[in-house]
Specification:
- Helices cover 44% and strands 0% of the residues.
- The chain has eleven helices and no strands.
- It is globular and about 45 Å long.
- The longest helix is centred in the N-terminal third of the chain and has 18 residues.
- Helix 3 packs across helix 7.
- It has a domain of 168 residues: Lysozyme.
- The structure holds 2-acetamido-2-deoxy-beta-D-glucopyranose (NAG) (2 copies).
- One of its GO terms (biological process) is carbohydrate metabolic process.
- It comes from Fraxinus pennsylvanica.
- Keywords: Carbohydrate metabolism, Chitin degradation, Disulfide bond, Plant defense, Polysaccharide degradation, Signal.
- This is Glycoside hydrolase family 19 catalytic domain-containing protein.
Length: 262
Amino acid sequence: MALLFLFWCTLFCFAVDSFSISSLVSKELYHSIFLHKDDNACPAKDFYTYESFIKASKCFPRFGNTGSLATRKREIAAFLAQISHETTGGWATAPDGPFAWGLCFKEEVSPQSEYCDSTNKQWPCYPGKSYKGRGPIQLSWNYNYGPAGKALGFDGLKNPDSVSNNSLIAFKTAFWFWMTENKPKPSCHSVMVGRYVPTKEDLAANRTAGFGLVTNIINGGLECGIPTDGRVADRIGFFQRYASTFNVDTGPNLDCQYQKPY
Ligand SMILES: *[C@@H]1O[C@H](CO)[C@@H](O)[C@H](O)[C@H]1NC(C)=O
Ligand SMILES: *[C@@H]1O[C@H](CO)[C@@H](O)[C@H](O)[C@H]1NC(C)=O
């Protein structure tokens, strides 16, 4: 089965070569956004290459390719902002500011646990493996490594390390997380391209579209429904910097302090 998926993905990635987000994110732009990712101070030095970013994006042809030009740029800016916060090496007085230090880390530094939900029988943890945050989106938990690996053609439960030692797989997991609906959560993609349709429960929970809802999808349990904390502000800071780089507005609902988490 895994082989079949791998085959499918390989074929698919070649098939969609006609569209590339490199038309909106040039190598120069990528390096101006992630100004310090290859510094000696960054543990992910030389890992997150532009080539892997572009190649991985081709497995998800709707990413950055849905809606108007402004919508496409806003989605890309939001994605780059969220992966920046997840991997940031920045601090308040950092050179070039706190929002110039995305993609500095490839794995979680002091994980609190192995992130194994042993009640999940569909994606059982492999003995001795840790499902800590890895890669641009800091994929974590067995119930994310399992389905990500299945979709992308690697054994996420047995070989979670693949996400931190193969930059193509690393970027693919980030795009996979962004593009995949995981009910009751919508996909981050659908939210940023205006295709999200809130349910009655969503409306009662103030979960209306915007960058803040994407934060809710990614880590709302810890960051949303409370007065805006540093993590949410950091995500917004990256987004504002990148939106301005792409010369596009951020849209409404940047934070999630009045949203109930899922
Ligand atoms: C990368 O991860 C795979 C899967 O866990 C592992 O087999 C391999 O030894 C790792 N390679 C390096 C260079 O760490
Ligand atoms: C929805 O937002 C309003 C403020 O705009 C707030 O008073 C209310 O408590 C929020 N509802 C929920 C369920 O968080």
